[in-house]
Amino acid sequence: LGVVVVLDGAAPLGMEPNWAERRVRAIDAGTFMPPTAEPVMLQACQDLGLTMLRSVHTADSLILGYYARNRGSVFAVVTNDSDFYVYGVERIIHVQDVVVDPSSTT
To answer: Are 47 and 5 a contacting pair, CB within 8 Å?
Structure first.
């Protein structure tokens, strides 16, 4: 089982206010990841030997392209974005449903 991490890049032109609003909602919900956490996460992914892809803007199109080319070998897409149901992704695991502990991953 391999893991491919797909990351968002910058906000697309014209979408900056929307992304700023999402950031405020994430802060209010306590789910905001400060910018300083990203390099730590990237280093951990690299140390684990995970494949990482970074999108120029949003990761949706990159994930869908990867899924279309590798459909037979993709077990699931882990995301908090419900758009992937509409795009025909067969198995979606919601980020908030993932629990990682020392003995197992569910």
So the answer is: no
Structure tokens at 17: 């206010």
Stretches in the chain below the pLDDT threshold 50: 106
Measure the CA–CA gap between 29 and 40, rounded to whole angstroms: 22
Q: Using CA atoms, how far apart are residues 10 and 16, in angstroms rounded to an integer?
A: 9
**DSSP strands (E only) in the chain:** 4-7, 51-54, 77-79, 92-94, 100-101, 104-105
Cut 0.85: pTM above it? no
Cα distance between residue 62 and residue 84, in whole Å: 12
Structure confidence at residue 101 (pLDDT): 67
Distance set, CA 30 to CA 23, 25, 38, 82 (Å): 10, 9, 16, 20
Name the token pair of 106: 């569910």
- Please tell me the predicted confidence (pLDDT) of residue 105: 52
Report d(CA 70, CA 36) in Å as an integer.
32
Q: What's the confidence (pLDDT) of residue 69? A: 92
